[in-house]
Amino acid sequence: MSEITPDLVRHLGVLARIQLSDEEVERLTGQLDVIVDNIAKVSEVATADVAATSHPIPLQNVFRADVPGEMLTIEQVLQNAPDAADGRFRVTAILGEEQ
Amino acid sequence: MDLTRLTAADLAARLASGEVSSVEATQAHLDRIAAVDADIHAFLHVSAHALDVAADIDRRRSAGEDLGPVAGVPLAIKDVLVTTDMPSTSGSRILEGFMSPYDATVVARSRAAGLVPLGKTNMDEFAMGSSTEHSAYGPTRNPWDLDRIPGGSGGGSAAAVAAFEAPLALGSDTGGSIRQPAHVTGTVGMKPTYGGVSRYGAIALASSLDQVGPVTRTVLDAGLLHDVIGGHDPHDSTSLSDSWPSFAAAAREGASGAVLKGLKVGVISELPDSGFQTGVSESFRAALATMEAQGAEIVEISAPHFEYGVAAYYLILPAEASSNLAKFDSVRFGLRLDVPGGTVEDVMARTRDAGFGDEVKRRIILGTYALSAGYYDAYYGSAQKVRTLIQRDFDEAFGQVDVIATPSAPTTAFKLGEKIDDPLQMYLNDVTTIPANLAGVPGISIPSGLAAEDGLPVGIQFLAPAREDARLYRVGAALEALLVDSWGGPLLDRAPLLGGAR
Fold first, then answer.
1. Which of B157, B347, B485, B501 is most buried, with most CB under 10 Å away?
2. Which residue of chain B is at minimal alpha-carbon distance from A40?
3. How much is the ipTM here?
4. Architecture of the structural domain at B3-302+396-494
5. For residue range B343-377, what is the model confidence (pLDDT) as tens digits?
6. Cα–Cα dist B274/B60, whole Å
7. CA–CA separation, B297 vs B294, rounded Å?
8. Tally of domains in chain A
9. Mind telling me how many Å the CA of B126 is from chain A's nearest CA?
């Protein structure tokens, strides 16, 4: 059995910035437990002598020419923003009261 | 003549000769969408100005402008691809109404080729799923049986071409999202070599696995669309700078069948018939026999690490997805919940809980787990090693055979709701398609027939070495020609009629 507990799932939710409800934490704990038990088998064949592959067809030193490209305007960048002011994204308080 | 029943190649020829106008062709498809899409729900958005685009193509053609080979042919676009003139949601509430300031490269190239965008097609949210049931906007239905799934994540694109709502569609394939929907809808789906088609403007799911490709009714049509969208794109740093042959030409050449003589077709011993629905393996074996009768040689090969593919995939994909989906932060675009007195982090966490569906949250949490300190080596690191082992299996196999063949998926279309509460069963559905994404090799699914026990479509998948996409078009077109001939017409001629009494 894996180590998936409700507390771990709640913590992962904090890391992923998803405020999970208690019902979601409970459901996810059971589902992830089954899934992790099944995917843990990768360690059976992943021995130390096997190199890791991060990209299927690796390319090196992919650069573009060092010239100004066609960029989005500030208006285009902000056009989908939930809130904006003075050419910037506007958000609620960055810090809470106790911080 | 019903213009919606023509292949894209046939329609393109009639457009070029002036027999048919793009406005007529586009109107016919819009009428078809109006008639059947209430049942199918392939489209999330239908373009309000498709007829204007078509009229412009007609005007340019009559002015003597030299247009490309598919100019004026309608196209459906999977909603994972961003478009400036239609919303792009990737099937998610968190992007409801999002209007991209730029076009995905494949969309820009389609427009430049004169293809006429009809609309955006439905998909599992952020392409996470095998049934389209995870779309935030409701499922798509399979034109062969409205109670069954059209596959996923690109069920909308596959259903649109299967229901004759569009002759061509764009899809994306991260673990089978082009090929598995093709299998269950009796259509053709091609996942190109990784890097063969630009990912710029494809809303990223798992960047090392995602690949955009064609969704069509024939192999030639897939080649025509691949020719339009493929090739190097400086906006995508994983885009290959290779020069590619014409895939339409490869399909035309393959249709003669000569390619089958002496072709070595690998069949994987670790994927025994017992792992498939009876009608699926029967159809697969019959297709192999058809190829053998034309001089192909069936060779048993071993791919001992493919059985670890699903496990590796469901570590790598969630890990990459959890990073890619961090951009939905309620600040720059997308949904924002009003949380009185809440900090930006409170707003973010509430918004992401409300805006993401269950499957997306499941995979983000799983990916966050796989990447977290103390687990990284055991899970993500090991999965990357499995990726190496699967690449080696492919290298070894392609030392012995020209192509590998598998059934495209374990079963025919299952019922809507059948697997929705069992994520692991849904994941296992991708066992045949995932290895190609892990290794970056191209794969195509073409119809092989109907399963005897349920009368539903079955697909056969061919895999080739990286960069050998043209080989798949030659082999696919050769088998397609033989099978269509043996059936007395395309498989989709046997699909039930839609839009009337049922």
1. B157
2. B379
3. 0.95
4. Alpha-Beta Complex (3.90)
5. 999 999 999 999 999 999 999 999 999 999 888 98
6. 56
7. 9
8. 1
9. 16
